[in-house]
Amino acid sequence: MRSLVRVAEQLHVARGTVAYRVKRAQEILGHDIGDRRFPLYAALLLAEELGAAVLSPARPTA
Known about the structure:
Number of domains: 1
Structural class: mainly alpha
Oligomer: single chain
Radius of gyration: 14 Å
Distance between the termini: 42 Å
Protein name: Helix-turn-helix domain-containing protein
Helix content: 55-70%
Shape: globular
Domain PucR C-terminal helix-turn-helix: 3-45
Strand content: under 5%
């Protein structure tokens, strides 16, 4: 789903909120979210399924 309006309606937030969050995600990733859509979708599915196991902060390596 690529419509900001539809996503905003489903999340019950303003369209501008969705646009801001997408922009912020792209800034964090360092590229447009459409450039690597499949890996992003897979990561989001894993995060939803595995939760804290994959969302915990990384431990520093020695």
